[in-house]
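Internal tracking record. Fields below are filled automatically when a chain is submitted to the structure queue. Please do not edit lines marked as system-generated. If the sequence contains nonstandard residues, flag them in the REMARKS field before resubmitting.
Queue: standard
Priority: normal
Entity type: single polypeptide chain
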Amino acid sequence: MKKVKKNCPRCFSIIKAPARTKIIQKLRKSPHNVKKILECFSLTQPTVSYHLKVLQEHGILYSKKQGREIYYFLNKKYPCKNCSLLNLPLKI
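SYSTEM-GENERATED OUTPUT FOLLOWS
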């Protein structure tokens, strides 16, 4: 019998904020810095940085400093084994 992956309520509570879903959607295409991520929001830079921090603390994103910029990447090896969060089609 094939084992079916279940959705993890903890992970979905992290992305329930529309801004976080939109960030994940943007980073699926390619890594971006905060300035580039801000272009698709009508939010302040501190608010976007807060959402990036939450996603990073839970292992959904990771960052790398390149010169003066910090680029955010989607963690394709997301540590939660209970769900398939990053494989789901997200609507924004």
